[in-house]
Prior knowledge:
The protein has helices spanning 3-13, 28-34, 40-56, 61-64, 88-97, 103-113; strands at 16-18, 24-27, 65-74, 77-86. By secondary structure, it is α+β, with helices and mostly antiparallel strands. It has a domain at 34-99. Strands 1-2-4-3 form a 4-stranded antiparallel β-sheet. A hairpin with a 2-residue loop joins strand 3 (65-74) and strand 4 (77-86). It is globular, with a radius of gyration of 14 Å.
Amino acid sequence: MNNIEQYKTKTFESIKHIDEYGNEYWEARELQEILEYKEWRLFANVIEKAQIACAASKNDINSHFGVYSKIVEAGIAKKPVIDYKLSRYACYLIVQNANPKFKVVALGQTYFAI
C-alpha cells in the first residue's frame, strides 16, 4: 500500500461508524475536519449542494442525510449543535461539491466512489 492509499484509508476509515444494524455512516462534523473546513457554515453550504444533487437524482435526502443534534462543549458551557449521519452516497456527493483546493478532497472522491 502506498502513502496516499494509507493516508486515504486512515483518514476516512478512522471516522467511519457502524450502526446497530450493521450500516456504515459518517458524521458530518467529523468529515468537516478531515476535509479541512475550518467553519461549519462553509461546510454546511457544501452539504446543502450535496442534498440538492441527491434530490435531483431522485434519492430520498432523509435516507442519506440523517439530521440529529448533539451536545458539545463550548468553553465552560455545553450547547446543542446540528450534525448529520451520512451514508457513503451522501459523503460521495459532499466530496464532489467540496473545495478542490484541499488535497484530501481528491482522496475523498476516490474513497467514497468505491
